[in-house]
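# step 3/5: fold
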Amino acid sequence: MTLSAPTQSASNAAAAETRTPILQAKRLVKTFGRVVGLDGVSLELYRGEVLAIIGDNGAGKSTLIKCLTGAEIPDEGELYLEGQRVNFKRPQDARGAGIETVYQNLAVSPALDVAANLYLGREIRKAGVLGSLFRIVDTKGMRQKARAELSELGITTLQDVTVPVENLSGGQRQAVAVARAAAFGSKVVVLDEPTAALGVRESNQVLELVKRLRDRGIPVILISHNMPNVFEVADRIHIQRLGKRAATITPQSHSMTDAVAIMTGAQRA
C-alpha cells in the first residue's frame, strides 16, 4: 500500500459528500418468506471510487448486490442510476444499463481463449455480408481489441490472448473476468470476492487492477471478507449487519478492529 493511497481515499470520500451518486439505493427491502434479507438498506456509490461492502455471513451482502444488479427484485425501495430511477427485472437489464458484475465463480468458459472470453456474448462479427448474413465472427479483430484492452488496464500477466483460459492460473482467470467487466461496464463494476482462493501475489495483482479501474473513473463495488484488502483499496466501506446498513466508514475514520466490531454489533459507528 503506497503512502499516497490514504490521501487519495480521503479526498474521494470527502468529495463524495458534494456529488450526485452514480448508483444509489434507497430503503431496499427484500424478504424470503419469513426471512428478512434486506431491511430498509440504502447505499450510495460515487464516480471514481471503490466502495467495499463487508458483513458477516447472513448480513445481506449477497442479497443487496443481487438487488443492485437485477438478479433479485426488491420488494420495496428505489434504485437510481445517474439520478434516474431504474427497475431491473433481470441481470441483462443491469448489464444493458452499464453495470457489469464479476461473481465469485467467474463464469468464464475454460475451453475458449482469452479474447473469446473477453467478448463472450458480445462477439464482434466480420464486416459486410460475412457478418450480417453468414454471422462469421471476427476473431482477428476481437484479439486485437482484447490486447488493447488488457494493455490499457495494465494487465501484463496475459501476454497471449490466444491461450485457452483453462491453461491460466486463478489470478489470470480473475484478470480476464475483471477485464471483461471493465470493457463493457461503462458505469459500474461489481466484484464479488475477487481475491477468494487466490495466493498473495495474485491477490495483489487483482487489487492493482481494482485501483486502475478507479483511476479510469470507473466506480467499483467490492464485496470481500479480506479486511487488509478492503482497507488497502476502499475509499468508503459499507457495513451490513442483520439485513441493515450498520454504518458507512472510511479507512481513515475507523480501523480494521473497529470495522469488525461494528459488523458483530460490539461497537456502534
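# step 4/5: annotate
The chain is about 35% helix and 25% strand.
# step 5/5: archive (pending)
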